[in-house]
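To illustrate the input format used throughout this study, we show a single complete record. The first block contains the structure-token representation of the backbone; no residue identities are included at this stage. The design step must infer an amino acid for every position from geometry alone.
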């Protein structure tokens, strides 16, 4: 019987790359996001290419009721979920604390922290049906070090770091692995979202060095998920070779 992975935020970036990687590895998938067309397209492509099952679930992780309804709608053939990748997330704006938009703050906290909590709680009954369940939370180096104008994005990712540790403690008795992966700068839609469609500002984040690619994170998640049942990578920080930390990147 194939393993089943549920991946949030699979319409782009890390989530989409994870979907492709895990489908190639024989997993059946539940992929989620808000953009239904992109999810449908991804699922069709995955079914055609890898001959695995793919279920698209459209919901906004910020909406507790939507999350519950979507997870409640999961059909019996997908009921035992072996792996949950909590990846959906975003940064909005990069501004001084006293100048940042407070609505952006709400959105980041609601998505990066509360969304992860809602999805995890809703999916746990399904994870409990697997003998070797695993949760992978996508944090960030912003959850390890705070940088100038990163304020609430960094706080939301510090919260992901903390909740990953808490989940690891509280789910220990259930034998559920909890891994947190903390990537540095990676060229995805992330910066276009952060800078609200300003493609020039977004591109500047990745010029003068080779940033991480979405596939690097998918490979890392695959490695973490492929270890034997008695081994768990708890916490993993991954950056481009040109990046030393949140505020030092060597650009040519
Ligand atoms: P992308 O913008 O490329 O992808 C983000 C994904 O999250 C999309 O699929 C989007 O789907 C989904 N998403 C965002 N908000 C919501 C929401 N409210 N409800 C449901 N889905 C949502 O970014 P990345 O792939 O780069 O980012 C993925 C994760 O990695 C995020 O948590 C991010 O913070 C983190 N990260 C990114 C880094 C980077 O440099 N790129 C580095 C470190 C961490 P849709 O719009 O269809 O809803
Ligand atoms: C994304 C990486 O450095 O822009 O989480 O915060 S960074």
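Output of the design step:
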């Amino acid at each position: 019987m194939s393993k089943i992975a549920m991946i949030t935020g699979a319409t782009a970036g890390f989530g989409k790359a994870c979907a492709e990687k895990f489908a190639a590895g024989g997993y059946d998938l539940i992929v989620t996001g808000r953009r239904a067309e992109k999810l449908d397209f991804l699922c069709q492509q995955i079914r055609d290419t890898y001959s695995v099952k793919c279920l698209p679930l459209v919901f906004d992780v910020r909406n507790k009721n939507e999350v519950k309804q979507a997870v409640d709608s999961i059909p019996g053939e997908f009921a035992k979920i072996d792996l949950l990748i909590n990846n959906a997330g975003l940064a909005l704006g990069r501004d001084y604390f006293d100048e940042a938009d407070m609505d952006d703050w709400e959105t980041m906290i609601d998505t990066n922290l509360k969304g992860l909590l809602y999805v995890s709680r809703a999916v746990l009954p399904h994870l409990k049906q697997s003998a070797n369940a695993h949760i992978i939370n996508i944090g960030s180096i912003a959850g390890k070090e705070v940088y100038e104008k990163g304020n609430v994005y960094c706080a939301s990712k510090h919260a992901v770091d903390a909740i990953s540790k808490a989940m690891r403690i509280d789910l220990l008795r259930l034998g559920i692995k909890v891994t947190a992966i903390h990537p540095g700068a990676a060229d995805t839609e992330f910066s276009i979202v952060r800078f609200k469609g300003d493609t020039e500002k977004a591109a500047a984040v990745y010029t003068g060095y080779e940033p991480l690619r979405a596939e690097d994170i998918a490979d890392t998640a695959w490695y973490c998920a492929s270890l034997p049942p008695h081994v768990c990578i708890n916490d993993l920080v991954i950056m481009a070779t040109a990046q030393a930390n949140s505020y030092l990147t060597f650009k040519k």
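Structural context for interpreting the output: The longest strand covers residues 177-183. The chain has one domain: 4-238.
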